[in-house]
Amino acid sequence: MTIVQLFKIAFFRIPDLKFVKKAEFSKVIVFLLSASVLIAVPMTINVLGVFRDVQADGQKIGESIPDFTIENGKLATTPGTQGFIYQTDSIIFTFDPDGNRTPADIASDVTGSVIAVALLKDQLVIRIPSSGLSTSMLDSNQLEFDYSEPALRNLNGQAIREALSNQAIPWLIKLIVFFVALYPSFVSLLITLVMGTFIATIYTRLKRFSYTFFENLKILIVSAALPTLISVIVQLLLPSFDATTFILFGSLFLFTQGVKHSPKIQFKT
Q1: Is the dihedral angle over the CA atoms 238, 242, 243, 246 positive or is it negative?
Q2: Mean pLDDT of the chain
Q3: Same domain for 236 and 178?
Q4: Which of 190 and 138 is assigned the larger pLDDT?
Q5: Rounded to whole angstroms, how far apart are CA atoms 47 and 41?
Q6: What are the CA-CA distances from residue 12 to residues 16, 30, 80, 200, 256 (Å)?
Q7: Residue 174 has what pLDDT?
């Protein structure tokens, strides 16, 4: 059975889904990977939307950043330059050349999903929203960098203003976001379909159909193609839509339609 034949079955010949059990698993995997790519699209769009919001806020902040340089590991400004705190819906930016604030103060400023960036007297502090992933990977969701580090020795106000004035998100960032979104999409879909296969196997046992767990898994993966496509379209219009539940129940429904006329196991009397 070719991939083209599987495609036709998945979208146009639902009653023939029972024949997917004969397909090579390597070809069925193509459907799983393709569905994962589709699911990653709305997630990527949402993340890039957040990036654009942060970028727009960053441009506003950039207009307020005065001239400064790094001298002897300290933030140096012209006489009379005052510190300030600039807050938007996505960022809290602190500029403190006088040393009035500490990293602990920055941590206390953050609530919800807001990002905090602070140019303190002797440190750059970045605090990201708390999550299990960030905590496990970074040990802390607050990063502190001394100005004496090589990468920050040439930091200055003009360089930050120029960086924040760039309105385009680089293609490399877009690709990174997409591939980062692809992994959880694949894992989530795989778990959903494996769980669905247990339900499908119970169904085939009750109906006395002679399908193994592995055959049911192959059929369910192909059955998920149409619900996945529909869920992605809906998610693009309604981001809060529960795609996982829809894919699970939609796939199971198509599975039952595809195998309902299968021959039943005959018990000996």
Answers
A1: negative
A2: 84
A3: yes
A4: 190
A5: 10
A6: 9, 18, 73, 21, 16
A7: 81
> Which stretch of DSSP H or E encloses residue 102?
none
Mean per-residue pLDDT for 161-190? Answer: 80
Q: How far apart are CA 225 and CA 209, in angstroms?
A: 23
Select from 43, 52, 50, 53 the least CA-distant residue to 235: 43
Kindly state whether residue 223 falls inside one of the protein's structural domains: yes
User: Residue 51: inside a domain, yes or no?
Assistant: no
Residues 30 and 85 in one domain: no
Percent of the chain scored above 90 by pLDDT?
Answer: 29
Q: Which tokens in the block code for residue 108?
A: 């206390």
Contacts of 214 (CB under 8 A, 6+ apart): 25
Per-residue pLDDT at 241 exceeds 90: no
CB proximity list for 255: less than 8 A, separation 6 or greater: 17, 196, 200, 203, 216, 219, 220, 223
Helix (H) or strand (E) holding 25: helix 25-62
- Does 56 map to a domain? no
Does some domain include residue 128?
yes
Locate 74 and state its tokens.
């300290």
Instruction: Please give the structure tokens belonging to residue 77.
Output: 């400004």
Q: How many domains is the chain partitioned into structurally? A: 2
Encoded tokens for 91? 């960022």
Domain-terminating residue out of 120, 155, 190: 155
Q: How confident is the model at residue 145 (pLDDT cuts 50, 70, 90)?
A: confident
Domain residues for the domain of 104 are 68-155
Name the strands in the sheet holding 123-127, side by side, starting at the edge strand that comes first in the sequence.
84-87, 91-95, 115-119, 123-127, 142-146
Q: What is the mean pLDDT of residues 25-49?
A: 88
What is the gyration radius of the CA atoms in the chain, in angstroms? Answer: 27
- Among 91, 120, 155, where does a domain finish? 155
